[in-house]
Each structure stands twice: as structure tokens, then as C-alpha cells.
């Protein structure tokens, strides 16, 4: 299958070796903002279709933590991290800050702890804090954390057991632990170029560990990553979603690949990356929901950047949000300005 570079016949400056790719990616970054380790990056509550099928409020805490040790080509989350190892006590304090500053409204029974990296990275979340964090979260029905497949292992199981122990001590049901992993794409050649240092077989093994230990799996999938032609974006989004469900996922999130991290802008000049259009994300969600194999969500953060038409964008954005909640395909939006 030809890549976008082959289609444009432009020479690539993107290195072939991982260490050189790291340097190339780092060289194209903007200065890192300064962050306060005393509080999380963000705290918000949003509705989500739960595994049970009901719509439930979910608390999301965006922790301020250490940067991920991998230098993924498409990542812009490093901007919300720090470079030093996180001392013990910092993450529990951020969680406590979030729990004491909940937005008004229904009390959420599920919580996502996202740290722009891996929750089970010992330099980002010290293992010595696991028991304290488990005690803080034992009141929730479901705890969702993110992790690179390479760091999925016994600590995941141990953290699940700590959640259960604290819930039992409080005469409550044990929270379900869900681990979110980035598959990114099922296209093996494109995946290799993303500098994630992961193969599809490694992803399958990590998913197998979670399944064997009764841990739920959520998967992140890129819509139109670099090196993939726009005309193949929907097909590979669906194939990636199928692989996620083959691995036991109960939920998959489709994330439109966002420019703006420096590296993708450089690739765009060579025709090796084109940001997806809103219609591409819509088609990917429609086709993935049609599989009827599990929950599929479209990431609607900063969605306006992918829109071509200001007239119909609000209605199309709302349609995606409703499809996320209802988990079914809704009629497309008609637009007199752009034809939809």
C-alpha cells in the first residue's frame, strides 16, 4: 500500500532508526510550559455511555506528572508534563485536590486518571503511592487509567487487588479497573514509524495479560495518522477497531490526529501527513459503530479545527456527542452552505 510520501514523490527527512527519530522529534518541539506539581492539569465531569449501557457521569483528572519515556511521533501531551521524576505523595495530593474540588452536579461513580503518559510508569506514579491512591479511589465503581503496553504487568494486578481490599474494608463493592492503551493503528508499517516502540504482537500480549487477569481494556485509535493516505483513513480506523475488539476491548476511542506538535508540521510539508477532516472522523465512527462489537467513541476535544464549514459545524459536533452517548448511528446533518 503506498504511503502519502510515495504518492507525493517528496524525499523524507524522517529518520529510520529509533534513537535518531527521538532526536528529530525533540528538535521540533516548542519550549515546555512550567507546571505546578501541587495540582492536576484539569478536573472535569462528562457523561459517557458506560459498559452497562447506561449514561453515567465520569470524573476525569488530568494529572501533572512526568513525561512518558517514549517519544511518539504524533504526541503533543508532553506539553502538560514535567521532566523530573515524581516524588512520593505528589499524585495522591493531586487526586485529593480533585476530589475536594468537584464541579457541581451529579456525583460521578467512575473516574479516569490520565497523566499524559503511563499510570504504571514508576517514575511518573511512584509504586509506593499505590495503596494510598487505591484508598482514595475505592468509592468509585470503575477506575480507568492509561498505560503503554510495555508497562502492563503485575503492578496492574496488584493495584486492582488494592482497590478491592480498600473497598471491602469500607463494605463496598470492588471497583472495576480498566486500562486504556494506545493501539494507534493496526497498520503494521505505519505503527512502526510512529516511534511508539511497539508491535501489534506486543499489543496483543499486553491485552492478553489484562484479559487473563480480569482487567478491562479501553483502546485509543488514531484517525488518519501520518504516513497513511487520507483515502485509506476510514478503512484503517475500522480495521484498528476490529483488532481492539479482537483483543478483548470493551471500548475504543477514535482520536483525529492533531497537528501542532512540530514533528507533524514537518511531515506535512513533505506530504507525509495530512490532518483528517471532520467528515473522515464521522465516517470512521459510523463504520466502527456498525460493527456492533463494543462501545466506540469519537474524541470531540478541539473538534472545530477539523471542520470545513462554520455553518453546520455546531450541529455535526452535537451529532457526534449524541452518537457517543447513544452508541448508534444518527442521520447525517444536511447543510445548505456546504452540502453536508
Which H/E pattern describes the elements?
A: HHEEHEHEHEHHEHEHHEH
The helix content, as a percent range, equals 25-40%
Number of helices: 11
Mean pLDDT: 95
Q: Give me the CATH superfamily.
A: Aldolase class I
CATH structural architecture: Alpha-Beta Barrel
Gross morphology is: globular
Strand content: 15-25%
Q: What does this entry look like structurally?
A:
The chain has about 350 residues and is an alpha/beta fold. The protein has eleven helices and eight strands. It has one domain: TIM Barrel (Alpha-Beta Barrel). Strands 1-2-3-4-5-6-7-8 form an eight-stranded mixed β-sheet. Strand 1 and strand 2 form a beta hairpin. The protein is globular.
Strand and helix map with partners:
Layout: H1 4-8, H2 18-27, E1 42-49, E2 55-62, H3 90-100, E3 110-114, H4 130-137, E4 142-146, H5 154-169, E5 176-184, H6 188-193, H7 200-212, E6 216-223, H8 233-246, E7 251-256, H9 263-269, H10 278-289, E8 295-298, H11 313-326
Parallel strand pairs: 2-3, 3-4, 4-5, 5-6, 6-7, 7-8
Antiparallel strand pairs: 1-2
Amino acid at each position: 500500500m503506498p504511503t502519502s510520501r510515495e504518492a507525493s514523490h517528496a524525499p523524507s527527512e524522517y529518520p529510520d532508526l529509533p534513537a535518531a527519530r527521538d532526536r528529530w522529534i525533540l528538535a521540533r518541539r516548542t519550549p515546555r510550559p512550567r507546571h505546578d506539581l501541587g495540582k492536576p492539569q484539569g478536573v472535569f465531569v462528562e457523561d459517557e455511555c458506560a459498559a452497562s449501557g447506561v449514561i453515567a457521569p465520569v470524573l476525569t483528572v488530568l494529572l501533572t506528572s512526568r513525561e512518558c519515556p517514549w517519544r511518539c511521533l504524533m504526541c503533543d501531551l508532553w506539553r502538560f508534563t514535567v521532566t523530573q521524576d515524581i516524588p512520593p505523595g505528589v499524585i495522591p495530593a493531586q487526586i485529593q485536590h480533585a476530589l475536594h474540588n468537584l464541579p457541581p452536579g451529579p456525583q460521578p461513580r467512575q473516574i479516569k486518571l490520565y497523566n499524559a503518559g503511563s499510570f504504571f510508569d514508576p517514575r511518573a506514579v511512584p509504586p509506593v503511592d499505590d495503596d494510598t491512591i487505591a484508598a482514595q479511589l475505592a468509592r468509585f465503581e470503575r477506575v480507568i487509567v492509561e498505560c503503554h503496553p510495555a508497562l502492563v504487568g503485575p503492578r496492574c494486578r496488584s493495584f486492582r487487588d488494592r482497590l478491592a481490599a480498600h473497598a471491602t474494608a469500607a463494605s463496598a463493592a470492588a471497583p472495576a479497573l480498566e486500562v486504556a492503551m494506545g493501539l494507534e493503528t493496526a497498520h503494521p508499517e505505519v505503527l512502526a514509524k510512529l516511534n511508539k516502540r511497539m508491535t501489534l504482537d506486543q499489543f496483543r500480549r499486553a491485552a492478553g495479560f489484562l484479559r487473563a487477569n480480569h482487567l478491562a481494556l479501553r483502546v485509543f485509535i488514531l484517525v488518519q495518522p501520518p504516513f497513511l493516505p487520507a483515502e485509506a483513513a476510514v478503512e484503517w480506523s475500522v480495521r484498528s477497531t476490529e483488532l481492539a475488539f479482537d483483543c478483548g476491548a470493551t471500548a475504543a476511542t477514535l482520536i483525529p490526529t492533531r497537528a501542532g506538535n512540530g514533528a507533524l508540521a514537518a511531515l506535512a510539508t513533505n506530504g507525509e501527513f495530512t490532518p483528517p477532516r471532520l467528515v473522515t472522523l464521522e465516517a470512521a465512527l459510523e463504520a466502527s459503530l456498525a460493527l456492533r462489537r463494543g462501545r466506540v467513541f469519537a474524541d470531540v476535544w478541539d473538534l472545530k479545527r477539523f471542520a470545513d464549514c462554520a455553518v453546520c459545524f455546531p450541529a455535526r459536533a452535537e451529532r457526534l456527542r449524541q452518537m457517543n452517548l447513544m452508541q448508534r448511528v444518527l442521520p447525517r446533518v444536511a447543510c445548505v452552505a456546504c452540502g453536508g
